[in-house]
């Protein structure tokens, strides 16, 4: 066998395994969207994905393991922390990323199913906690960076602030009550930031302060006010 053939034979199983996993997870999301957690079965997922039931069971012996892996595939652990140069810009980019995931077909199906499943399975509960922690960590790193730059009060609880910003986004996906446009995201951000930004200089608004750039932050006076001179 040539070295190229040997190399191809080594790569092929990994590629096939990845394709099988993706096909099964896509089918799981589709089934969750149509039938919810209670109606999900490995047999239906296998049929929909075109993957042999024995293959699916070998990799995911239980329904909960399959759902947990599907959720893990949407993890934020490798997501970069936004760095647009302004606090408001960073938060908007972060929120837009979350919105895009939640409003996708897979995102909606997973979110609504997990609401029903989280109290029924310790494994899914643990996966959800890890998933949420990783999403919160991305926002938390972002907030902590702007605390260090003096734009936000040093006692700001980054985790609580991230939850305050994301909660209305999740609510609108779960209980549709209006659009999730960029303007709406900005209003959520501004409301959450009220009370955690350092004192705003006369003539400036919360939005002005949140839009301050990294270079502006170097001009923050010791009083906490942005130097506008």
Number of domains: 2
> Strand tally, please?
0
Content of β-strand? under 5%
Q: If you average the pLDDT, what whole number results?
A: 80
CATH architecture level-2 label of the largest domain: Orthogonal Bundle
The chain-level structural class is mainly alpha
CATH topology-level fold name of the largest domain: Tetracycline Repressor, domain 2
What percent of the residues sit in helical stretches (DSSP H or I)? 55-70%
Please mark out the parts with pLDDT under 50 across 5 or more consecutive residues, or reply none.
1-13, 200-206, 217-229
Q: What summary fits the major beta sheet?
A: none
CATH class descriptor name of the largest domain: Mainly Alpha
Principal-axis shape equals elongated
Describe this structure in words.
- With 229 residues, the protein is mostly helical.
- It is built from eleven helices and no strands.
- The chain has two domains: 55 residues, Orthogonal Bundle (Arc Repressor Mutant, subunit A); 108 residues, Orthogonal Bundle (Tetracycline Repressor, domain 2), CATH 1.10.357.
- Helix 1 packs across helix 6 and helix 5 crosses helix 6.
- The longest helix has 33 residues.
Brief descriptors of the model:
mainly alpha, Arc Repressor Mutant, subunit A, 11 helices, elongated, disordered C terminus
């Amino acid at each position: 066998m040539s070295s190229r053939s040997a190399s191809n034979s080594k790569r092929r199983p990994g590629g096939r395994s990845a394709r099988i996993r993706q096909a099964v997870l896509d089918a799981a999301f589709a089934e969750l969207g149509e039938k919810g957690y209670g109606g999900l079965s490995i047999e239906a997922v296998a049929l929909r994905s075109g993957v042999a039931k024995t293959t699916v069971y070998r990799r995911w012996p239980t329904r909960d393991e399959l759902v947990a892996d599907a959720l893990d595939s949407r993890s934020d652990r490798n997501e970069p922390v936004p760095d647009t140069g302004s606090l408001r810009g960073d938060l908007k980019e972060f929120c837009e990323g979350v919105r895009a995931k939640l409003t996708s077909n897979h995102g909606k199906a997973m979110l609504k199913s997990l609401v029903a499943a989280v109290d029924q399975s310790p494994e899914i509960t643990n996966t959800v906690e890890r998933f949420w922690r990783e999403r919160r960590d991305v926002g938390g790193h972002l907030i902590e960076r702007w605390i260090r730059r003096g734009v936000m009060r040093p006692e700001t609880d980054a985790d609580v602030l991230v939850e305050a910003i994301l909660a209305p986004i999740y609510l609108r996906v779960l209980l549709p009550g209006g659009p999730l446009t960029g303007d709406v995201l900005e209003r959520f951000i501004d409301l959450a930031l009220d009370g955690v930004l350092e004192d705003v200089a006369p003539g400036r608004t919360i939005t002005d302060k949140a839009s301050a750039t990294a270079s502006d932050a170097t001009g923050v006076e010791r009083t906490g006010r942005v130097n506008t001179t």
